[in-house]
Records
---
Amino acid sequence: MTEKTNVMRLLEQKKVSYTPHFYGGTEAISGVEVAKILGQDPDRVFKTLGTTAKSGEHYVFMVPVERELDLKKAAKAVHEKSIEMLKSKELLPLTGYIHGGCSPIGMKKQFKTVIDKSAENFDTIFFSAGKIGCQVETTLKGLQKLVRVESGDISV
């Protein structure tokens, strides 16, 4: 087993059971490739996306790796006129994470987070453990013990 990430430590602090999954590699690969390497259904593997609203607020959205965030639906879910994806250079200073290793758990600041409603269909879901090469698998309820996550119709 590789070293624990802060995401894993935070899950343990809150006594949330999880399974770590390591896939090696030092560069970001697509979430679809990650799902394939882990032998998992891509509908259960979620990517974490940072956004900025026209109001200046920041939001986090989680969608299955094979799907895309629908910006109109996402804006509606957080009651904003419009949102756009964060630029890569803004991700690290804002969240503490790099592209390909962004987790909803352990960000520098807690942003309103919305996960695609399809997550409710699975006993467990996968998402980044905060480092490229590592995912955690836990329940949606487990994730909600650490992050206020709402579910919504946000993907296409």
---
Amino acid sequence: MANEALYYGTGRRKNATARVRLVPGTGKVTVNGRDAQEYFGRQALVDAALAPFKVTDTEGHFDVIARINGGGISGQSGALRHGISRALLAAGDYRAELKKAGFLTRDPRMVERKKYGLKKARKRPQFSKR
């Protein structure tokens, strides 16, 4: 156990950052010290985050230990997926499958800033003719 393989990956999405460790194991996922299902509260978010394992056929091969901060649960799920994908690159030659699924690309979409004179980024104040 002293010299067990350990793979690291950092994933980001929106304002969330996930620092991911992959340890050979049974497929247990721990996020911020809690079980992934309990942490995210929605199975869809957990499934989305664990998609890289399905694509590379490595389900149940690794335990995931992740530290996630920033953003909301959706962004955090995306960040975890990105981090797992990057860690899998170090674990084996899965680059082709991950790239084809689009899991290695950092999602560049961010929230647009609010502009002065407007209610939100693009929403204008109500117009009154008279």
